[in-house]
Amino acid sequence: MLVILSGVAGAGKDTIKKEIIKRMENVKSIPSLTTRTPREGDIPGKTYIFLTKEEFEEKIKNDEIYEYDIHHNNYYGTSKKILNEASKNGIIIKDIDVNGTESLKNTLKDIKIVTIFLRVPKEELRHRLENRVDKPSEGEIILRLNRFDYEESKIGIYDYVLKNDDLEKTVSIIQKIIEEESKLDK
Ligand code: 5GP
Questions:
Q1: How far is the CA of 43 from the centre of ligand 1 (A)?
Q2: What is the pTM assigned to this prediction?
């Protein structure tokens, strides 16, 4: 089973993903492929697999990617090999944007997908972005806020839409969702 967490940058996806992995031993994450430069806190091969633009385009050409998208001028995508291998033994939780989620829902036929969208008020989002440890630039903050309306317009494709205003509450709801959905996947 693949659990997809979406929501604009700053919605708390990363923190929630880490908490869920800590609390549920059968849930793990897989790295996405990306061409962006590593940020503080990134662990190459674990948070992301960092590729050059040429390497990424080669993988697209060779049909090694389930879905990909371009954000802030960088490629992001899901490796077929990594997802197929990992889904054989356990539940995967992955942070993917709305376009990637839409593509995966159309292309992944053998793996159950549960999609969760995390909402956050726009004004609170700016505040969270400004206070991130990786300190995005003003330009980057504006780019991410512009993305907000687009992502919000796509929430209809999600199985669950949650407002993340209390981390503990959100994590325990997601934990319950995963437990219940995995029972249905038996
Ligand atoms: P960041 O650079 O802040 O880590 O991620 C930027 C955006 O890329 C986020 O919205 C995240 O959900 C998205 N993203 C991460 N991995 C993937 C992926 O494998 N596929 C797609 N389509 N988007 C991804």
A1: 15
A2: 0.86
Structural domain spans, the chain: 2-184
Q: Whose CA is nearest to atom 20 of ligand 1?
A: 77
98-154: per-residue pLDDT in tens? Answer: 999 999 999 888 899 999 999 988 888 888 888 887 788 899 888 888 888 888 899
Query: To 10 degrees, what angle do helices 122-130 and 138-152 make?
Result: 150
| Alpha helices, DSSP H, located in the chain | 13-23, 53-61, 80-87, 98-107, 122-130, 138-152, 167-184
Length of the chain: 186
pLDDT digits (tens, 9 = 90+) for 36-87: 999 998 999 998 999 999 999 999 999 999 999 898 899 999 999 999 999 9
Q: How far is the CA of 112 from the centre of ligand 1 (A)?
A: 20
Q: Which CATH architecture has domain 2-184?
A: 3-Layer(aba) Sandwich (3.40)
Which atom of ligand 1 approaches the CA of 5 most closely? 12
* Distance in Å, CA 96 to ligand 1 centroid: 5
